[in-house]
Design a protein that fits this description.
The protein is 56% helix and 9% strand. It is an alpha+beta fold. α1 links the parallel β1 and β2. The relative contact order is 0.14.
Length: 221
């Protein structure tokens, strides 16, 4: 049985969704973020040295990193939700599997960090920190995000799914960046294809079942 160490409001929601799409049996071990710091609890350190989620345990294997987990589960399911080798769709699939965390999440994380900095600074330092954060956001983070957002809209204007004409695990991998962008960056504004993508994935039966099993998930709005 596959054990999924699931953290609320995290990337691990993608793993639950994938398992539902693949119809693989699994069990969930729930972990809750600290209500004040929003950090993962110490219980995850007992599962993996980095103490982060997602992590799955399948027999002798303990696997971290969403992309590695998704590739492992797709292989376990006989290649379901993965285009055939040697096709343009497979190359696109591989690209988006790596792009999601390698390129897309970095500016979104910076958006979160700089947005939270003023409130977490000492009271006397807040005006200075607020000015620094505002400058970083306006001069670097937000322009970078716009480039990524427009890129997604351009791709989804050509094909319905990131790897081509068929829904695949690459769309599951890309779901978290787009959901985070919808929450933090108003990605839907002026980008109807991105908005349609989010609406379509949120309507999938497997997505809804995974959401029920995973618990509260702030990004599914």
């Amino acid at each position: 049985m596959i054990l999924v160490h699931h953290l609320n409001n995290s990337r691990s929601q993608r793993v639950l969704w994938l398992l539902e799409e693949l119809a693989l049996p699994y069990e969930i071990v729930h972990h809750q973020r600290d209500a004040k710091t929003m950090l993962a609890p110490p219980s995850l350190l007992a599962v993996h040295p980095l103490g982060k989620s997602p992590v799955i345990v399948d027999g002798a294997y303990t696997i971290a990193e969403t992309g590695a987990i998704i590739e492992y589960l797709v292989e376990k399911a006989g290649g379901k939700l993965r285009p055939a080798a040697g096709t343009p769709e497979r190359m696109a699939w591989t690209y988006w599997m790596h792009y999601a965390e390698g390129s897309a999440m970095s500016p979104l994380l910076l958006k979160l960090i700089f947005g939270a900095m003023p409130d977490r600074a000492p009271a006397l330092m807040r005006p200075l920190v607020r000015g620094i954060a505002k400058q970083a956001l306006s001069s670097f983070v937000d322009p970078n995000l716009k480039t990524h957002f427009d890129y997604w809209e351009s791709v989804l204007s050509q094909v319905p799914w990131f790897a081509g004409q068929e829904f695949s695990a690459a769309d599951i991998m890309m779901s978290f960046p787009l959901e985070a962008a919808a929450q933090r960056g108003d990605v839907r504004n002026g980008r109807p294809r991105v908005a349609q993508f989010l609406e379509t994935i949120h309507a999938r039966p497997a997505y809804k079942v995974a959401l029920e099993k995973g618990g509260p998930y702030a990004f599914a709005d």
